[in-house]
């Protein structure tokens, strides 16, 4: 999947306005977080599923950038004092520590708008067709919105200081983490003009990968270090958040991650192309150390 990173980074760079603007501090703030070094998991998945369904990575690139913009805005807001109150992100100071809480908040807002501007540009629509562009944009809106990612973040905040059961925790993480990964994979299929059965299979793959990703995050929050992760560890305990580790223990968490990874690989059987890279990717995410 690393083959996509230069393509994604170059495309993201091109989305930042250049010139003499009165709102330059806002532009700098948005660019700061968008260009922090990261795994680019979501946009890479968009490109991979587009190619798997017979499309070209280039045509899905604006949609991949849009997913990363939504993800980046969520991280900026997550780090704010009113949310998780984290001072570091990807090994660098959080956006609000550099630009202040007010500009960081607005940068997140701006990145959300930029996502839709990018994937609904004339070139993007021409590349995939108006119907597919609209369908992909709707998927991203639904998966990142009220009953998707933002809804999951709300459940997370409302659960602080409480002891939600495993079902509540699973629903929260399905929305907070898995939904945006689902959007990334589904949008890749849509950009290639894939049928509904393949879009649904991509959603299943992403759902399993997304939950596994979050459980591994919970494990790393108690087993890793700030230097290894590039962000503070132990914040879940500090914020009195219920986690899979707290409810199941590390050993059961690791077994659950293995089960979810198998579910993800099984979902790939719906595709005709070579799915080895996506299967390997699921395994790599399950075994990641940061």
Set out the fold topology:
Elements: H1 5-14, H2 24-34, H3 41-52, H4 57-79, E1 88-89, E2 92-93, H5 95-99, H6 101-119, H7 122-128, H8 130-144, H9 149-158, H10 166-191, H11 196-223, H12 226-229, H13 235-238, H14 244-248, H15 250-267, H16 276-286
Antiparallel strand pairs: 1-2
Give a nutshell description of this structure.
By secondary structure, the chain is mostly helical.
What attributes does this structure have?
290 residues; mainly alpha; Farnesyl Diphosphate Synthase; two-stranded antiparallel sheet; 16 helices; globular
Strand order of the largest sheet: 1-2
State the CATH superfamily name.
Answer: Farnesyl Diphosphate Synthase
Classify the helix fraction into a percent range: over 70%
Shape: globular
Roughly what fraction of the amino acids lie in strands? under 5%
Mean pLDDT equals 93
Largest sheet: 2 strands, antiparallel
**Count of DSSP strands:** 2
Element order: H for helix, E for strand:
HHHHEEHHHHHHHHHHHH
For the record, what CATH class applies?
Answer: Mainly Alpha
Low-confidence sequence ranges: none
Class based on secondary structure composition and strand pairing = mainly alpha
Distance linking N and C termini: 17 Å
| CATH-defined architecture | Orthogonal Bundle
Find the CATH topology.
Answer: Farnesyl Diphosphate Synthase
Work out the radius of gyration: 18 Å
């Amino acid at each position: 999947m690393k083959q996509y990173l230069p393509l994604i980074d170059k495309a993201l760079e091109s989305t930042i306005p250049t010139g003499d603007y009165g709102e330059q501090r806002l532009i700098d703030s948005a660019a700061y977080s968008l260009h922090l070094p990261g795994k680019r998991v979501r946009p890479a998945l968009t490109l991979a599923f587009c190619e798997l369904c017979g499309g070209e990575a280039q045509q899905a690139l604006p949609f991949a950038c849009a997913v990363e913009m939504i993800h980046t805005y969520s991280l900026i807001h997550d780090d704010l004092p009113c949310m998780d109150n984290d001072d570091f992100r990807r090994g660098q100071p959080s956006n609000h520590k550099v630009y202040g809480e007010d500009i960081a908040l607005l940068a997140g807002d701006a990145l959300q708008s930029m996502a839709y501007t990018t994937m609904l540009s004339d070139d993007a629509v021409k590349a995939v067709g108006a119907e597919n562009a609209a369908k992909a944009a709707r998927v991203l809106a639904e998966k990142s919105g009220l009953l998707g990612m933002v809804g999951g973040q709300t459940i997370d905040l409302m659960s602080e200081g409480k002891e939600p059961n495993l079902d509540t925790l699973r629903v929260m993480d399905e929305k907070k983490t898995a939904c945006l990964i689902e959007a990334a994979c589904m949008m890749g299929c849509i950009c290639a003009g894939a049928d509904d059965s393949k879009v649904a299979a991509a959603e299943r793959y992403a759902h399993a990968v997304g939950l596994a990703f979050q459980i591994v995050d919970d494990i790393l929050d108690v087993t890793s270090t700030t230097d290894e992760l590039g962000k503070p560890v132990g914040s879940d305990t500090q914020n009195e958040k219920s986690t899979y580790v707290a409810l199941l223990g590390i050993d059961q968490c690791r077994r659950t991650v293995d089960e979810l990874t198998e579910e993800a690989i099984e979902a790939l059987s719906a595709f005709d192309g070579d799915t080895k890279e996506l299967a390997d990717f699921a395994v790599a995410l399950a075994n990641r150390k940061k």
